[in-house]
Write the structure tokens for this entry.
Amino acid sequence: MKKMIAPSILSADFGKLRDEIVTVVEAGADLIHVDCMDNHFVPNLTIGPVVLASLKGCIQVPFDVHLMVTDPSSLVAPFVEAGATMISVQVETELHLQRTLALIKARGAQAGVVLNPATPLVSLELVLPWTDFILIMTVNPGFASQSFLEPMFEKIRQTRNLVDRSGFPIQIEVDGGVKLSNVKAVFEAGADIVVAGSAIFGAADPALAVKKFREIADRFAS
Ligand code: DX5
Ligand code: ZN
């Protein structure tokens, strides 16, 4: 399966967001990762559906919305209408996880489950039938430019095993502290999709950074 690169716009220049997105997509990005934070679940406030709607149609690749909010289900419909085609929710916020995943799928988007570093894999096992992708956080959510938590490599490997044993066609996404220096190891541990914010938009040349990520990802092409 093709390994994918998802630049996170959290580290982009919001004054020229559309140009920043088009640049990384033209350079080979497979998805655009959109971090939605509500200043309750995480101590930061970012992008809502209104901003995403203003970007609708500027690219052909999916908008992958990562909801770091206390009430994710209420944002599913607005984000789908704004152009999201992948939506993930944090297990820690959701009392009715199966219902919210089913809602995302019913709206026609891919449903993702996100686990914080301290949250065990067992918390998503029972919802695998409604899960299109699992997002493993390798930093605590809230901010870009944090360091990758090394013990998460084992969690990625365990997630790979769980998915392979399940037989469901679930993709594994990894988010937080992914750089050119560790992305090969992240893919080797079992990731299908890597999110990279500061390593791409913080680089002097974001397009070149995407191409370098792409080069490493393509070595895994089977
Ligand atoms: C963190 C966000 C990430 C963030 C990653 O809460 O979920 O998507 O943008 O940024 P980097 O790649 O700089 O760690
Ligand atoms: Zn994210």
Q: What stands out?
A: Strands lie at 4-7, 32-37, 63-68, 84-90, 110-115, 133-137, 171-175, 193-196. Residues 8, 33, 35, 66, 175, 195 surround zinc ion (ligand 2) (CB under 6 Å). The longest strand covers residues 84-90.
